[in-house]
Every structure is written in structure tokens, then in C-alpha cells.
Amino acid sequence: MAMYKDLRDYSAEEAAWISERLISLRQTIRASDLGRRSHDNLVIGSWNIRAFDEGAPRRDESYHYIAEIIDHFDICAVQEVKKDLKPLQRLKNLLGPNWDYFVTDVTEGNKGNGERQAFLFNKNKVRFRNLVGEIVLGADALIDGKQIARTPFFASFQAGWFRFTLCSVHIIFGDDKSLRTKEISALAERLVERSKDEDEVYVLIGDMNIEKRGDHIFKGLSDHGLEVPVFGPTNLGGNKHYDQIAFTSEDIKTNFVKSGVIDWRGDVFGARDKDHYEGIIQAQRVKDGKKPYGNWETSYQNHFASFEMSDHLPIWIEIKTDYSDAYLGRFSKEKTA
Fold first, then answer.
1. Residue 208 is part of which domain span?
2. Number of structural domains, the chain?
């Protein structure tokens, strides 16, 4: 469970503000499909947390809201973690002592955007299997003679009977959609090969900058046999399918239950709070030597709220982890239909 003891360090007014929004967020999640998950199963989440944390520091309350969402997963891949790791450590501390994380080095070069990839996981539900690495393409699979711009990161885990390797990626954005297609296709092909060679479930997860389910970029996943649940749009504009979780699925190895998106906007940094923040944020920008927002109506959600939470919505899948009946059935003389 996410930790709330830091609320004691805030003023009574601020603690009340944060706790009321946390309660609202918790109620929304409990009423969703995620709230009806089986706790015997595994929930894998993914979230591109916008520029975490670069530029103007996030407000204290934002860390609580982000931690609350991630705490409803058992393991979460996070994209756009920036150079300074103190924000990630702060997030981990708010998640509690049963949580741990892995994080990559910063990707160099302009295309790398100074980003890291991270996995946060609940040690009470998930066991790290001591394998981490990066996906490096062979010479025959290079994309226009180059590696994937932002190196995919993987780590192996186990939850119950379910052994799996998560591969997190942030596919480069830009006008060249063919490059996105090539990167996703090369990566999907490699993971499917590894899954077969190692008899291991591979889960490709992250911000893939897919614009529409079924488009050429998306087919880079599906054409290689990966199973891709339906999430719907994950950008704040509600028209792009950027974030995906795709997995190898053969025999009984991946028992998929359901998937979903967490839309936090009705509970935190939503329309109801726009007037509350205007004076506070405009004064803070002046204090920081920045120009006040010219159009608060537009800037509130598109800039301010997206840098406090994200310009992406988190996604998740639920997977069964108890295969004991099927395993015992292999030895039983009484075969079930």
C-alpha cells in the first residue's frame, strides 16, 4: 500500500486537499475493472510519466497521485525517467518498503532525449530473476544500418507460476512513421524468437507512439504474432493509441484476463480544480522568472497538468499466475475434457 505518512508534514489545508483527491482517485480505481482484479493474478502496468522529473519540479501532491496509481499495479514499466534519480527514489519511498526498482543509464544523443527506462515492482508479488539487459540487433536486423534509437531495456521476473521477461521501450516519435514501424517490427521479431528459444514469455511494453490500432505501425506488433489487448487512446487528446502492452502467447504460458486504462483526470488536476491552481501557478511562474501562462484555459490541461502528471494515461493488463491445475493434469490418469 502506498505510504501516506508524509501528509503529516504538510499544512492542514494542503494535507486535506491531497487526501481528498487521493480518496477520489482510489474510489475511481476501485470502481473500475482494475478494482475488480483477482489478487491471485498479476497486474502489469506501463506509464510514460512526462519528463520525470525535468524542468520545474513537480508539486508534492503530484508524487502522491502518481504513487497511488502505480501502487495498484504489481509491476510497472516507466518511460521518460530523466537524469536526476532523486524523483524516482522519492516515488519508490512513497510506494513503501515492499517496492523496489531497476533503472537504465541515460540514453546518449539527441534521439535519446536524455531518458532512462525504469521498472518498479512490488516484491510481495513479483520476484526478480537476476537477469537484466538491453536488446541489441544483429547486423542483419539493423534498421537503415542503425540500432533502435532508444535502446530497449529488459528484465526477467516471476509471479507465482508465471515466468516472464519485460522489455520496455520508448519508440522515437517524428514525421518518419516508417522508422517507427521498422523499429517495432524488428523488436517484435527479436522477442518472438527469444521467446521460442528460451521457452519464456516476453512482454513488450511502453510508449510505442502508435497512432491508431491497426495502422502500419501497430502491425509491426501484430504481424509477428504478438497478442495485443485493446486499450483505446492513451493521449490526453483521446485520439492516439501511443501506449501498448504486447506479449507472446503459446499454449498455457500467458493466461490473459483483461486490460485497461486509468484516466486520472476526473480526480486530480481536473476541470473542477482549474480555478484553484490558477493564482498559485501564475504567481509561482513569476517567482521563477517565467512568463505567466497567457491562456490559462488552454494551458491548464495541455501544459500544467500534463507536466504534473503526464501527457499519457497509464495502461495495464491482468495475467493469471496459478497454473497448478494444468500442471497436475499432465500427470493425472483422469484427463479432463
1. 5-268+309-329
2. 1
Q: Is 277 among the domain residues? A: no
Q: What is the CATH number of the domain that holds 246?
A: 3.60.10.10
CA dihedral (111, 201, 178, 136) in degrees, to 10, reads 50
Are the CB atoms for 138 and 194 separated by under 8 Å? no
Tell me which residue has cell 496509481.
69
What one-letter code names the amino acid at 329? G
Q: Who's near 230: CB < 8 A, 6+ residues apart?
A: 213, 259
pLDDT in tens, 195-233: 999 999 999 999 999 999 999 999 999 999 999 999 999
Strands across the sheet with 127-134, in order? 127-134, 153-159, 162-170, 201-207, 243-247
Q: Are 35 and 23 in contact (CB under 8 A)?
A: no
Q: DSSP character for 73?
A: S
- Greatest extent of the chain over all pairs of C-alpha atoms, in Å: 77
pTM: 0.95
Is residue 217 in some structural domain? yes
Number of other residues whose CB lies within 10 A of the CB of residue 126: 25
CA distances from 140 to 137, 181, 199, 253 (A): 8, 17, 24, 30
278 found inside a domain? no
Residue keyed to cell 475434457: 337
With a cut of 60, say whether residue 123 has pLDDT above it: yes
Q: Are 317 and 44 within 8 A, CB to CB?
A: yes
Answer whether residue 274 is part of any domain.
Answer: no
Contact 177, 167 (CB under 8 A): no
